[in-house]
Write a structure and sequence with these properties.
544 residues, alpha/beta, TIM Barrel, Four Helix Bundle (Hemerythrin (Met), subunit A), 8-stranded parallel beta sheet, two-stranded antiparallel sheet, 21 helices, globular
Amino acid sequence: MKKMNLKRFCCMIDCSRNAVMNIKTLKQWIDVCADMGYNSVMLYTEDTYEIEGHPYFGYARGRYTKAELKELDAYAVSRGIELIPFIQTLAHIEGIFRWRDYAPVHDIDDILMCGEERTYELIDAMFDTLSECFTTRTVNVGMDEAHNMGRGKYFDLYGESNHTELLLSHLNRVAEIAERHGFEICMWSDMYFSFATGAGNYFKPNAEVDPRVSELIPDSASLIYWDYYKRTREDCTGMMRVHEKIKPDFWYAGGVWTWDGWSTQNRYSIEALKNSLSCCRECGVENIIVTLWGDGGAECSAFEALPSLFFAAEYVRGNSDLESIKQKFAEKFGISFDEFMLFDQVTREEKEAFYLSPSKYLLYNDPLIGLLDTTVPDSCREDFAEVARLVLPLTENERWGYLFKTNYRLALAVAAKCDVGIKIRAAYKAGDRSALAEYAGELRKIRDLVYDFYLAFEGQWMRENKPFGFEVQDIRLGGLMQRLLHCADRLDSYVSGECDGIEELEAELLDVHGTRDNPVGERRYLRYNKWPEIVTAGNLAISR
């Protein structure tokens, strides 16, 4: 297999979803990417960069100052790396809308107001920072997943709009601003794909394309086909052929699954990348991005993705032999490929051609309400105790031990907590107050294990990221620890006769998917990552 002829081989790091990688670690990240063979690092920053005259843009979010961006850019250039900004100029910019300064440019949800001159003044100010701080003259302007654009304040002012025309008009204004600042732009393709094909979702291989949409996309703009799933080669190639019809010379973005909790899913990511990179070779794609997103709180360290990133780097060099890749990985990183793949065990093995992520929901699942108790298999304690046993020796690794320490502490906490709610409910139904007294003590011990995990995770975060964003983790994990103590006190009150019953344990457990005809389905691990949906059936303001 020959080496792929690429213009850009890029790694994108998410610096917006709570975690903003600190300067020291980002320089280390640039070094690692350069050493693996990437020639570009991309910073995904929604509002986490400084804009002159906009004090509330990225306020209290750990934004990069212009001085920091210049320092990072100079360092990247010295390492042969093109540092490319990924910003948002339409949707996914909800961070600014909590401030009244940005009410005039807010349409709906996380979406900027199209057609509003103050919107384009803001975007022009964004490009002022980019022009001043980056050597590259390429920028990703986002524009993805803006499905409700024109349906908020825009609708109130102007009525119903043609969404295709509205999007393309906005794109042309952004492209004009970029061109005035000397930039070419690329953007995520989902909105343009949907309008050009009439597809109801972002997946329609071999679809017909409306040429009128293609003709209205500026020459200076490139589309990025993003797809992080393990498609068949036929489906992936079909999607690429459709993109070629919409706008030739599109980019491709795959992903390493770092956004489902504290641990990555390298095995699934490698299988997905293997197929998509093969299709890129077949379709002649010359710009490839491997993304690492932080949805859900940015709990996972980017460094856990090294097996997938290294595999992708070797693959584009023409090496698809896994044993050779493993040998080179060990030589480069001082630890075996298979040992690094143990992070997958904390999120569990792939099942039925997809992936799972139980460690996060098992940790946060309430011990009395138990919204996800119906998913816990009988083997759960043994599963996570085995993970802890396998990971423990690696906590002593000089370079990577801190990552394994976090996952070791997580596995211990999950092993102890995963089925305690099930046992408490069974003891309550049986009227076994002696057992409930023991479980009250067990909840307090679990609280201590969660605190041990918290300390390891805090050390990892502060080593790699700016402190901003960790307040979310304090709220989540601190809330969990307090809840464990509260539930223990509730059990004690019931055992002592101070209260007549525990209402949460009286309630019938229903299937988490809401199937009335099947109140309790098969007990099996799920992919369940949204913290507010795990901890409560109520509404929470803190969701990100």
